[in-house]
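Suppose you are handed only these lines of text.
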Amino acid sequence: MIDDSKNTVSSPSGDPWLLTPGPLTTSLSVKQAMLHDYGSRDASFIDLNARILERLVAIIHGEGSYVSVPLQGSGTFAVEAMIGNFVPADGKLLILINGAYGQRIAKICDYYRRSYRVQESAEDVPVDCAQLDATLGADHDISHVVVVHCETTSGILNPIAEVAQVAARHARSLLIDSMSAFGALPLDAREIEFDAVVASSNKCLEGAPGMGFCVARESALVAAEGNSPSLVLDLYDQWRALQRNRQWRFTPPTHVLLAFDQALNEFEAEGGVAGRGRRYRENCDLLIDGMRALGFKTLLPDELQAPIIITFHMPTNPLFDFAAFYDGLKERGYVIYPGKLTVADSFRMGCIGRLHRRQIQGALDAVAGTLSQFGIERIES
Ligand SMILES: *Cc1c(COP(=O)(O)O)cnc(C)c1O
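From them, the structure of the protein bound to pyridoxal-5'-phosphate can be written out as follows.
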């Protein structure tokens, strides 16, 4: 296996490093794992599927009571599937919103004509559990609550353990969008009560993009039979098909699965959630310290910052031009992401994917180099 953490200028494939919320940089060995054409009925492919699904359950320590169901598509397909399967037509969903991904869940409910209520806070404010408690106490129609683990819009960490406690106290079912946190931030089903969580192959698990998955409490999935308004997103049906003949219902993304199996090997070799979370935390701290040293300011205070993606205020210096800044970094081998926020003009830099200290340091050097090209030595804003 090539140790791609040693590269600074570009990844082993010659591509720029992706400091984005996804798709993300993958290791060379994950990409190489895709150099095969498997038939969907191939015995080794079937074994590989089973191995992946088992390992996803193990990541949340859900052995015995949780099952995992894979689904073709990007992460949003899995979010939509979770809403459509678990919230029945006569249910009501409380959506805890503090960013674009929470908003998207409300849009899904509009499409599905599911009744819902929102509890919204600004993008730099975590979900308010006291307000949640009051809402659940007052509105007895609410059957389900959904929360976004790390709101990738800003990079804020939501207090899912407390959210889960409140939901459990009121006997409501909790659904979690942990897309940008699963595999890097702890989510332990033995300690946190929830019915379903969704994530995808290409965020913190560092596989290729193209599939999502839901890890669900088996009893909740059984109870969800017949709820899905969509055939392709019917998690219950997909799960039953896999149980029946170990096959996906429709053409499986074989290459994505090959990459995902290898990505999970590398995830385990790194020490699972603890190891991966540690590397991301180190990346995040290094990036924030380095950017602050150059004068940039983070949107979030450190205690609300998840080690996933960091939002920086857009500098007000007239010499600073974001489009030119983006291009300057890209030319130096690093891709960042514009902000998507309403609370502040900003841009974002991710610290997840196959990135190590060297690439973060390289990105900081690229930022300093690009600024000096603008004639800026230090951002003062
Ligand atoms: C990435 C992400 C999604 C899914 O996005 P896709 O572009 O559909 O893969 C959903 N929720 C959160 C919190 C995310 O970070």
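What can we learn from it? The two ends are 44 Å apart (CA to CA). The longest strand covers residues 66-72.
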